[in-house]
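LOG
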Amino acid sequence: GRVQASAPPFLLSLFLLSTGSAFVYLLLAVWLSMHASIASHSFGVRLLTRFVRLPIPSLRQIEGLRFNLKDFEQQGATELMRVPFAQKQEWTQVNAYSGDVQR
């Protein structure tokens, strides 16, 4: 409870010291929690915008993935009648810098 006025001065000073240190601890906890919240939010934004961003393909890469009707006609009968995903498929990838097709 309350400290009486007739208490010895060293008890009053200990009471004021503990009350003041509790107030400073409260201010420090609020300040550090606000700092942690801002830091974690900024790191989350940086993570989503720089490190986990999906790569946007260039026009050369999109053109390299496009199929024409002549590509379908050149496959042959065995390739047309195969069961999808049953055999190993060969994917081609266009190099963004040189435009070469890699298999």
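LOG (cont.) second protein
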Amino acid sequence: RAVELGYTRLEMFVYGLSMLLMVTSPVVATIALFSVHMLTSADNYLSPADAFTVLALIGALRFPINKLGTLLGQLAQALKAFERIETFVGAAAGDAEKDEEE
């Protein structure tokens, strides 16, 4: 039971970390994009057209990027479940082969 609680605690930590990233990633991406543009631009000028384009793109990509974290977590759970089913089916197939030999 202690091992199970350790895994549950780790899962909740990862979930909390993913929620933190989900909430802060659009803000950090916006700041990073504007900072890079200002540092690499020759005249250090950010036009309204560029600013609103970047904000619209980040707004459009917010939902897919947020779902990517959820998708990766579900993929990890599905792979683990597949391993468990494979082990169970393999054990059952091994028992059937032993019965046939006897």
